[in-house]
Write a sequence for this structure.
């Protein structure tokens, strides 16, 4: 019934193991086997002898790469602890961010020259957690996005007044240098709102990879007369000029293959390699603009 919508924020649920959720055509959801192949390809391209540290049950990872470039990977914006509560997620995220964005990495002669943020394998979660990361990446407030919701059943063009959502700088060390954001078709939901929240940053990040999935809205749940439930998106996340990326997803400024079978078979990672090249060039003023 909802498959033709091609929207990952649509679902019909008849029971714990009886449900269907949509997705964009061409989406192949990750499996333990494909995830293991992805991890091997990323590890092979981080650099000789580079290892990463993890937090949040492996959902957050960081590595220092050669040339004073940081690599920060976020695979989810939820379930950072076994308890799975939001307060625990916030505490665990802050613990990781305090370990990553130290004074040594953000200030002085040994500070990072560039930062890669990888959300290519991000299943979404809580949008405010993405804003907490964005707050470590700026020294001044700016508009992340505005949210509006449909509010007239007879007129699908009617919305609530857009609610502006701000990124506010963290009261502590923040990184303000060049950023490359890696995205792809498996960047879902909160992974996309986080990516969108960085577009107003200065300097603007350079997006590398492929279009994101194209689902931003919270899911509006309703119960059907037979006891089943369904969910549909009823919101739009707007840029400063009123644009929304629903459906098409956020496009990259630098298109590259992302986790294709050809890449994984040879342990290549074109997006990560390109990000390292651009950030190395950025110290000489030649990095691309995120657009």
């Amino acid at each position: 019934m909802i498959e033709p919508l091609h929207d990952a924020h649509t679902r019909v649920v008849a029971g714990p193991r009886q449900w269907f959720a949509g997705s964009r055509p061409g989406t192949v959801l990750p499996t333990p086997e494909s995830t293991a192949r992805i991890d091997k390809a990323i590890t092979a391209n981080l650099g000789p002898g580079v290892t990463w540290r993890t937090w949040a049950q492996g959902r957050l990872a960081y590595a220092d790469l050669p040339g004073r470039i940081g690599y920060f990977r976020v695979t989810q914006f939820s379930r950072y602890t076994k308890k799975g509560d939001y307060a625990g997620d916030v505490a665990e995220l802050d613990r990781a961010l305090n370990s990553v964005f130290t004074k040594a990495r953000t200030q002085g002669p040994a500070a990072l020259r560039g930062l890669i943020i990888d959300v290519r394998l991000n299943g979404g979660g809580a949008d405010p957690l993405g804003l907490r990361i964005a707050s470590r990446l700026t020294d001044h407030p700016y508009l992340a996005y505005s949210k509006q919701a449909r509010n007239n059943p007879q007129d699908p063009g009617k919305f609530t007044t857009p609610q502006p959502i701000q990124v506010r700088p963290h009261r502590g060390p923040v990184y303000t240098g060049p950023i490359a954001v890696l995205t792809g078709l498996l960047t879902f939901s909160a992974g996309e709102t986080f990516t969108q929240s960085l577009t107003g940053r200065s300097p603007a990040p350079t997006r590398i990879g492929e279009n994101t999935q194209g689902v931003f809205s919270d899911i509006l749940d309703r119960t059907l007369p037979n006891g089943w439930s369904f969910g549909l998106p009823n919101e739009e996340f707007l840029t400063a000029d009123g644009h929304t990326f629903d459906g098409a997803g956020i496009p990259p400024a630098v298109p590259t293959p992302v986790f294709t079978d050809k890449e994984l078979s040879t342990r290549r990672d074109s997006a990560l390699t390109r990000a390292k090249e651009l950030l190395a060039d950025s110290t000489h003023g030649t990095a691309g603009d995120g657009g």
User: Anything to note?
Assistant: The chain has a mean pLDDT of 94.
